[in-house]
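Lecture 7 notes: from sequence to structure.

We start with a single chain of 749 residues. Read the sequence below before looking at the structure.
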Amino acid sequence: MPDDVRHPPKGAPSGGGEERDTKLSDALSERYLAYALSTIMARSLPDVRDGLKPVHRRLLWAMHQLKLDPAAGLKKCARIVGDVMGKYHPHGDSSIYEALVRLAQDFAARYPLVEGQGNFGNIDGDNAAAMRYTEARLTEVAQALLAGIEDDAVDFRPTYDGLEQEPVVLPAAFPNLLANGANGIAVGMATSIPPHNAGELCSAALELVRNPQATTRDLLRHVPGPDFPTGGILVEPPDSIAEAYETGRGGFRLRAKWEREALKNGAWQIVVTEIPYQVAKSRLIEQVAQLMEERKLPLLGDIRDESTDVIRLVLEPKARTVDPAVLMETLFRATQLETRFSLNMNVLDADRTPRVMGLREVLRAWLDHRHVVLVRRTEHRLAAIARRLEILDGYLIVYLNLDEVIRIVRYEDEPKPALVAAFGLTDIQADAVLNMRLRSLRKLEEMEIRREHKKLTTEQNKLQGLMKSEAKRWKAIEEELEATRAKFGDGALGARRTETGRVLPAVLVDEAAFTEKEPITVILSAKGWIRAQKGHLPPETEHRFKEGDSLHTWVHAMSTDRIALFATNGKAYTLKADAIPRGRGDGQPVRLMVELANEDEIVSLFVHTDDAKYLVATTDGKGFVAKAADLLSERRTGKQVLVVDAGKQAALCVPAEGDTVAVVGENRKLLLFPLDQVPEMARGRGVQLQSYKDGGLSDAKVFTRKDGLSWRLGERVRVETDLAPWRGNRAGAGRVPPNGFPRDNRFGE
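Now the structure, written as tokens:
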């Protein structure tokens, strides 16, 4: 930095302050730390005592200043937001209004702190109307949070401009942190607290007051879990819930509530009446519709929204034979009908230090705050009583010496010093006497003063006894908790909405149930083009191919199947049926889907079945039996199954279903032998199936001996049952087949 900039010449303007040389890293870290602390302390984390962030606390305080009590009229939200922004919260009006709206939404807050009039949004995710159209006032819950704030119950601090005062924390006669929950993301930390039932929280707090050594499991007898405003079913195991509340970290699985509704003629539908917390209904329906379009919910036929002010989502099954539990299990796994709400009770403690607390610590901190509030309110009341008793004592002196007091006031030039000297009054008493009205000198007024004096003295003695005994103070807090539980823990507002303790039956769902099954026909052309057409086409269906191409083979399959291919190189390949091109076009060359050399061709294709077996063989008549699992390969390069000698090829791969093998050579010799003479292998050359002097293997087939050997002649199928002439052992030469056997030496099936 140039010297004339670092050290301005004399007489030059200062430029706004002192300039210092600082390392960039130090300056950045210092400023980022200040920003992080500001985010943590004044924006994102709630206070454990009242459960509020600064913006919410300022909103309630501003509404209290505007006298927007539950019994008062409502005021425009724009007026409330303007007061908050101008006096207490130096941020944008939109963020303040969004915070106000959330406090008024009964589907977002378990116990709304603001009563709104107008459009405050809905569970579909629609936004609230502009602040100039909506009105608001405080609820009784908010009143409970503010109760005693005028009695010096909490500290105040100057606002950002120093012109006003705002509370550091609210008295909080309501367990707001746990009752309404909180969410926030700060720098390097976050908080996530679900809503709970206020009546249950008060019961747990009473347990903690009566038994300070109570453990978290003792408290969980009163608080079985969260209580979300939108209801639902909590399906988290009890041990997991206990651990989460003990450590302050964990999570809760929440499911939608549903029931089976019977229709006419044995039909039925599912009706969802409660959805998980913080799930927008419209987005949930869009998600389900998208998955249906992608064929990932094969059991679901349709979804429609019949909601009014009550949730009613209707789910129609694809068929009445579908099990409702299985259908819902597929939806729970794939959609937001089941969600997980994380628990991270990271809050600011009474010393404004962020830390993670368990359930017991949070309730203990709230109770300690209520104890501090009780002491401060009692001290404030005792001071007020003392001031009033001092004045009443002065009044009583006046009534005992009324004539003398009148004379002093009437004839003395300085009546105050004279009154003090004559009757030993204090300055406050003397001022009160001099400010009395003449009508107060009547006899009836004296009796009222004596009654008030006696009443205040009795109250003073009681409060002084309260201050001297901690046991009495905790007894008073017990009474407050009982009153809070009676007020907010009963009736429609206090009834538990989220169901807990349900043991869910084990529902087994095949992963294939998440993909829609559709019948298709896979067609392979002679030149190696493959395609799939919708439906199981009959065998006589004519297929169109490119000029010079023709049908090689076809197979019926489902869209969820795996298609196995066996090539002349002895390798097996696997394709997913839904990856095969659909439609009535020419399809796609198999060589683009699997790696084949120029001289290699697909011998056969078939639908993979887990327990199936296949006879594989080369053109020189060697082969073995392979399991279907050994023919599976997820790699594009395939899997070598049949090892082929130089100059030879894999000739066939046919199902090994039966007890007898029929092989026919190019020399037109037929041989039958038992299947158990062929070994079962995973890979290799195999054994000789039939011996040849000239040529090689033409075709093979596995069949059941008692059913006879069949082959196709044109449109007819011929069956030969007298098979004795051709029976022998493996590796025999065989004999000429019976009359009528196809001239191409193939069984044709």
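The chain has four domains: 52-171, 257-336, 364-493, 517-726. Keep this in mind for problem set 3.
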